[in-house]
């Protein structure tokens, strides 16, 4: 059967695919929730009105490209028309969102930053802006809320510090890291956070249970470094920080959460949609009158990701580090001798010599000890961090310059082939290995 339209012009057969160019009109305080199709990217632009993606306003008339699988929402405070070109897995509009409560939090934080700015820099307490920590189960929208309140603050001219303690996904850099970065501009919804000012410590695993002691040590190192930066920079101090945490909030995960709250001296705890954790935290922190525990509603748009999707997201993040979001980066493949590097793993080796232990006691592995490992094919496909340490005993307390990816180990010629973001010698010969691997596809 042939299709003909007005004036007898042929029409395309009807299709069930959502791949055509189409417009969506959004009423005020509503959002368009989108999951980009898994195969191709989606282009989107704002035709009229105003709209933002996770706290960052989008420009009018400019097409923005979103990679396959990307999940996001375009929210409007006052109404907007959006145009999309490409395939989506799903897209729908929602007028019930927790955005008003989120922006109210932003307003309170803004007030505290202003008070901090107006105080004498000599008073370390009153000149300190809010230290916010965002808590919730996996897929409760913690990273999204963190980015939103950071972007709203940056839009008002503040330069708050983003602290990412979520080693599972990595909102600043690759997974397996504890990191921080000042946010000087609203966060680009696609490109994310520039790495040039990031302070990164490498934990080396995507789950904290593999070495909780090391996790705590790195949290402390990062907190102390930020504390020193705040001491010399009144502007950053007044802007405060927003800390994104892991979704592990039960058992040892809860202990790590309390440890993070105390280590960073957090004074605003935002709990997304988890009554039990909220009341537990209120109870345990009631002796600290300056700490506010605030429960916030989870957005109905937050997408749950199963283990496989999370693993895929981790791989994408590592790929993005080396190749960029749309293959715009060209990493270098380098070959080095085994003797050019010292590869350390943290955790292992005896905690104390047997002679120092009571009779009959067995030495246990020290989770905070950097142990030199032999280079062998076990390291194939590992992601190693390049430490800034000058000496081996500084490895655990040093941040890292970046990462390399081991693509070949030649045991006979004693050569390593690795991918690095740039050409030439690495900034250090001390490398840190964990369990983080990547299979380049
Ligand atoms: N309103 C929304 N509409 C559509 N997608 C959303 C919305 N809010 C968040 N998302 C998406 O849902 C996913 C999960 O959100 P997010 O990463 O913020 O959760 P999380 O609690 O930080 O998860 P995790 O603990 O696993 O890191 C992300 O892909 C995010 O882009």
Describe the structure.
ATP binds at residues 31, 71, 139-144. It is found in: Nucleus. Required for endonucleolytic cleavage during polyadenylation-dependent pre-mRNA 3'-end formation. This protein is of the alpha+beta class and 441 residues long. The protein has three domains: 16-94, Jelly Rolls; 99-296, 3-Layer(aba) Sandwich (Rossmann fold); 330-433, Beta Barrel (Elongation Factor Tu (Ef-tu), domain 3), CATH 2.40.30. It is built from seven helices and 23 strands. The strands form four sheets. The protein has a seven-stranded mixed beta sheet with strand order 13-12-11-14-10-15-16, sandwiched between helices. Strands 17-22-21-20-23-18-19 form a seven-stranded mixed beta sheet, with no helix packed on it. Strands 5-4-7-2-9 form a five-stranded antiparallel beta sheet. Helix 1 packs across helix 2 (142-155) and helix 3 packs parallel to helix 5. The site of adenosine-5'-triphosphate has 20 residues, from strand 7 and helix 2.
């Amino acid at each position: 059967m042939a299709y003909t339209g007005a004036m007898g012009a042929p029409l395309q057969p009807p299709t069930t695919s959502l791949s055509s160019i189409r417009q969506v009109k959004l009423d005020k305080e509503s959002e368009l929730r989108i999951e980009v199709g898994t195969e191709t990217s989606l282009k989107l632009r704002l035709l009229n009105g105003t709209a933002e993606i996770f706290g960052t306003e989008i420009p009018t008339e400019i097409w923005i490209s979103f990679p396959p699988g990307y999940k996001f929402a375009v929210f409007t405070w006052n109404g907007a028309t959006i145009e999309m070109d490409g395939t989506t897995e799903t897209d729908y509009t929602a007028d019930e969102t927790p955005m008003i409560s989120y922006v109210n939090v932003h307003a309170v934080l803004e007030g505290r930053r202003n008070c901090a700015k107006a105080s004498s820099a000599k008073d370390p307490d009153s000149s300190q802006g809010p230290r916010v920590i965002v808590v919730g189960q996996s897929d409760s929208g913690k990273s999204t809320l963190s980015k939103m309140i950071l972007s709203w603050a940056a839009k008002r001219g503040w330069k708050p510090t983003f602290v990412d303690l979520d080693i599972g996904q990595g909102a600043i850099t690759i997974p397996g890291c504890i990191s921080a970065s000042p946010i000087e501009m609203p966060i680009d919804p696609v490109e994310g956070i520039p790495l040039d000012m990031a302070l990164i410590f490498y934990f080396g695993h995507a789950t904290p249970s593999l070495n909780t002691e090391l996790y705590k040590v790195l949290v402390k190192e990062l907190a102390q470094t930020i504390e020193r930066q705040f001491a010399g920079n009144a502007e950053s101090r007044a802007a405060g920080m927003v800390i994104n945490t892991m979704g592990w909030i039960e058992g040892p995960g809860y202990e790590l959460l309390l440890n993070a709250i105390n280590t960073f001296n957090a004074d605003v705890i935002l709990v997304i949609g988890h009554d039990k954790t909220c009341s537990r935290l209120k109870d345990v922190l009631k002796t600290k009158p300056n700490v506010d525990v605030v429960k916030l509603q989870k957005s109905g748009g937050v997408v749950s990701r199963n283990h496989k999707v999370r693993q895929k997201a981790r791989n994408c993040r590592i790929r993005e580090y080396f190749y960029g979001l749309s293959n715009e980066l060209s990493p270098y493949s380098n070959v080095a001798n085994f003797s050019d590097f010292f590869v350390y793993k943290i955790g292992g080796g005896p905690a104390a010599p047997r002679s120092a232990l009571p009779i009959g006691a067995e030495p246990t592995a020290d989770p905070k000890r950097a142990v030199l490992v032999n280079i062998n094919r076990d390291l194939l496909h590992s992601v190693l961090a390049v430490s800034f340490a000058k000496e081996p005993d500084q490895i655990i307390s040093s941040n890292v310059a970046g990462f390399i990816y081991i693509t070949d180990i030649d045991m006979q010629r004693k050569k390593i082939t690795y991918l690095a973001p740039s050409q030439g010698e690495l900034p250090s010969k001390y490398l840190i290995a964990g369990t983080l691997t990547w299979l380049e596809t």
